[in-house]
Amino acid sequence: MFAMDLQTQLSSEPTIKDVDIQQQFYRTSPAEVRLSIVKQVTNQLEFYIYSNVSITHIWLNIEDFFSQKSKFPREYREAAYALLKKYVSTQLNLSVVERFIFFKTIEGDSNDNTEIGARLQALSVLTDSGHNITGIENNVCPLLATWLQACHDQLNMSNVKSKPSCQKKYLKLSHSIFCYAANLIKFQFSTIKDEYAQLLVDVIIHICNTTTTQEVILDGLKILDATIRYCFVPKACIPDLVVLLCSTYVGSLSYTKQSKIASENLLRSHFFNVALDTLFRILRDHDTSAISIRGAVCIVRYTSLHESRFDFAVINANSAISILLTSLNFDEFTDLEIVGTVYAFLKNEAITKAFDHYAWNGIFEILIACTRYLPFSSTGTKEKLKSYSTTASLLHLYELILESVELIFSPTMLLQLNVPLFNFYSAIYPVLKTTQISHILSLYTTQHVGHPLNSHWIENLIFLRDHILYNSQNDELSLQAMQIIVDICSYLDENSVIDFKETVFREILEHLVSEERNNIASLIVNVYYYLYVKFKVFHFEDLVNFSKTMINGASTEHVALIGTSLLMKLFYYNYDHQNIDSLKIVFEEIMVIAQSQNLLCSCRLLCFRLLCRIRADVAGVIYINDSSQAKNESHSGEEKEEDNLPNLCYISSSVIDGTKPRIHRWGRPKLKRLVSIESKDEDVALFPSSWLLQIYKNIILHEIDWRVFEYLTLNLSEQLINRSLFENSCYQKWSLACKVCIHALRISCYEFPTSISKLLSAILMHLSRLITNSVLSVHILEFLCSLAQLDKLVSNFTDADYRQVFGVALKYIQHFSSSKNDANAHDTMKKSHSAYVLALAYNVLQIWFLVLRLNERKKYVPFIIRGLKLASENTTIDDLSLVQYDMMQQFCYSNTSIHNYASTPTDDKTESKTWVRGNTLLTIRSICGSGIMDIIVRRPTGTMQYTLYNKTNSRQDMLRSQMYSSQTSLPDDFSFCYPSAVLAYFTNSNGISATSRPLALANDDAVRRAISVFDRIPVIESHKAGLVYVGYEQTNEADILSNNRTSKNFDLFLQKLGNVCELKSKNGIFAGGLDRENDIDGKFAYYWRNRIVQLIYHCTTLMPTNLERDPQCTLKKRHIGNDFVSIIFNESGVDYDFNTIPGQFNFVNIVISPVSKPSGASSANSEFYKVQVLTRQEGSDFSPFIVPKVISADALPLIVRDTTLNAAIFSHIYHEGAGEYVHIWVERLRQIQRLHKRARESLQQTLGKSTSPETTAALEYSLEDIMVDFTTFL
């Protein structure tokens, strides 16, 4: 059916024929009619072939459809273009005239740009998509240029940009035009004249340069690439084309790849020379945009790296570096590209091998110039980059470049490029890594760039000094740099040393005072000293003055110490070379430093290390000894400070006079020109021994630094032995010096127990050699008494140490026994001191016997007994020896606490009987019918009670059960007891004798009263002392005694001084006269006790204060005024006067004052206190604190307590008229002896004259029966 219709149509005649068109179709016809005819003809063209004359006639008569003046609707033009496309599609070959007529109409269409798409479609059909432009060759390009510009203008209009749909339409249209143009260029561009081709290329370049649309730029670059590839680019367009390609070459946008392709094609074309000229002009003249210059750099880099890909446009690396130098410093991004290009070249081995000297210099010039953008730039300009990423990129590039430079440079290259290379390192140094700096340092050791034979050695050393030595953040690298400078000194000669000194080393010296790196400072001083010794380029006075500057103005202690070490080096140098004048100058400076308390302790100690080693032989010749104090320093228990000091030697790697120098040791040959005695020889100088002694004296009297005082104390004695050195300068008082030393040792036991414990054996040995000096007796024994109270110090004592202690005490007892009748009866103080020495000696025996371990005491008993017997040889044994013997028997096998408790029987049926045997009272009480017996043993050193019972007796079992059920816990004084102790309690304290027997006492009132009196005598030696707090600015007695508020310092002191007890409690504590019933003297008191002695403190701040009833505080003063010893805690801020609180019995005031004067009532905690003993009687010398001492707060309570106990004993002796010291145990012994005597007299009266010789012998004791060694049978 369809086929029949088609045949009918083809065979039928058209409604409008050719003749109708030619005769009836005119422009004057109505437009509607013409439009209808155009549409009908268009439709008929599908089935009917019109002649070209008819179609041309129609086209010429509808040209007014395209005129903007006619303002025909768009429908008219669309119908006309439809006719054109239909007609052209039916023609095999369009005539030139027809193509021209149609084209002119398309070209002349002046309607809206929105119809460009229809016109482009018509043109595409007319020219077969650009394949055939015959007749319109010179007209197509201008038309395309017009259309492209129009689209570009539309895309840049704001109303289009704001409408995505419109923008998309014009982008599509622009793309269509570019596609058409691409075909035109590929197939017909050769037929177009240059001026028209240039017009199109110029428009495309302009559009690409001005648009921001990536799609348009990409299409434009494709067109330009096609132009380059398939035909030719007008020569006049090449400069602008190159600029465009450069500006689009950089980045990572969609068109960048196409730009790189086009650039490569252009440089491979026959226009490469013009392109290269333009490229070089861009880099040289900087008359284009920054992005174009960056692109030019990238193109040059690409061309140089891929030289083989280009036949003609060859840019070798040497030329490239020269070209890049012209663009340097344009902007930071361009410079970044240039640095990247340099790195790319350095990575390419072939390129680096081809670099000539000028290229390398250019590279370093580029790299140095671009360091100004780095954040740590040393140029001072510190350009600010636009982004952190750019900074990071540049830093990363430099890191990579540095690695490449390390790998590339050979010794030959280094020799040629020394200056630019180190200039580069100088500029880039702040960002160098440790490994890279190490590589630079290796150039000095392997390539000897700092050797004087290197022509640039000074510049290289300046780099080493300025950048690595002083600007390195790595001390190890700085130390390596300084060591390199030290090593280079070994290669200096008379000519090069001047340049080295003035150009390199002088500035190093200027920095030395502020140098904080110890090792570097030491090396600098070594170089300084070496240059003086080897070349004499420095004056001796310069070195001395410089040393003083270092000591006084150094930034660190070690630098000051190095300055002192330099003085030592100068001393030994002049000492070795016998330069007497210089030696005197140095030695005077050393002595000035030693005595200057405002200088660092370490510097002064170094000077004293030299001064204390100076000796003189019998002829007075001065020399330095190196063995004298090694022994003393080894006792300090600490590392020698000298080990941490700079070595007193020359530079280890240097050569002096052709040989390696010997290392300086402390030992020196004798210097014959410096003597300690006067001489007439003009070449001899007198050693300033008097000045040296004056320094020592000032140190001992006024030194404020303990370390200096300690060092001098340890080492001065060895030097003082050398009498030849000081025999014309001083008078030596050895006894006074020994006493001071013993005081220092005693205080050191409290303050430095760890250090002093290692020296105790040697100390005891030396003290045992001094016991013949009576002046030292009190101080030696007080030292031993204090030492026994410090458990940590004696915990590691050996058998020899204990025997040393006991031996010292026994020697004094023996000496007293032999000389007690020689004392001046009228000199009370001397007699008091003598009695005090005896009391201290027995006190040493007692407390040290208790210090012994329980299982060790037995073996010392024979030693002590033998010593006591020697003291009593040819005389009767004194009471103190007897109680000492009893005390050893009491504690040899037991640690049981002693007491004087004996229960009183409550049962009337109790029978009691007492015997006396030797110095023991034995009482046995028996409860009738119970089988229970109480055995009470009373001895001078204590009372023990035992209860015996029969286990088989039911009543006894009941009593035992009751007794144990009521005992809820063991007593506080329970401790371990050897079985032998039980027997010891029943043994006569004078020993076992076959001829001795117990004597029964009469059971009468006199005996019972005597025993009752005995039981009331304490078994523990008891002392009392006042304890007074003096507040801020208090000097009046009433104000001081009325204090009921104290300070924190006083409270801390009390806590360690003793324990608190409640006065009303029945605790067996000695109250020292304090009220225990009515709280008259307060509720509490402080006390301290051990097994054999106790001390109660009359603390005024714990006693009630009632100023209304007792404004003078007489209730407090009745205790304080009757105390022999008072402890005064003085925080008044002024010196305490002995008579501030006067009292009849006050004899000793122990005044404690803070070292720092209080600033107010609430002063801060004090760490150190001044302790001074004030006595009523002048001439007392029983305490080290007669001369004030400074004690730490931690050691203060223990020292004061021990001093109080000793002062109480001395005061008691003095107030008793300097007679013997009656110990509480002696009083108990004498009570027993009285009962013993009464029993013997009663027995003799009973026996009468009928007494046999055997019986009489039984009543007497022989010397062998007394104080036998009980350990042999217990």
Task: Please describe what this structure looks like.
The chain is of the alpha+beta class and 1274 residues long. Among the domains are: 745-892, no CATH class; 1017-1217, Rossmann fold (3-Layer(aba) Sandwich), CATH 3.40.50.11210. Helix content is 55%, strand content 8%. It has 54 helices and 17 strands. The protein has an 8-stranded mixed sheet with strand order 11-12-13-10-14-15-16-17. It has a 5-stranded antiparallel sheet with strand order 8-7-6-5-9, covered by helices on one side. A 4-stranded mixed sheet has the order 1-2-3-4. Strand 12 (1084-1089) and strand 13 form a beta hairpin. Helix 11 (194-210) packs parallel to helix 13 and helix 24 runs parallel beside helix 26. The chain is elongated, with a radius of gyration of 60 Å.
Major sheet size, sense and barrel closure: 8 strands, mixed
**Number of H/I helices:** 54
Helix and strand content put the structural class at alpha+beta
The percentage helix is 40-55%
- Arithmetic mean pLDDT: 79
Number of strands: 17
The CATH topology assignment of one domain is Rossmann fold
N-to-C CA distance: 155 Å
- Rg estimate, integer Å: 60 Å
CATH superfamily of one domain: Rap/Ran-GAP
- Estimate the global geometry from the Cα principal axes: elongated
Per CATH, the architecture of one domain is 3-Layer(aba) Sandwich
Low confidence ranges: 1-11, 378-386, 628-670, 963-980, 991-995
Q: Class of one domain in CATH?
A: Alpha Beta
Q: List the strand order in the largest sheet.
A: 11-12-13-10-14-15-16-17
Classify the beta-strand content into a percent band. 5-15%
GO cellular component, one term: TSC1-TSC2 complex
Protein name: Tuberin
GO molecular function: GTPase activator activity
Pfam families: DUF3384, Rap_GAP, Tuberin
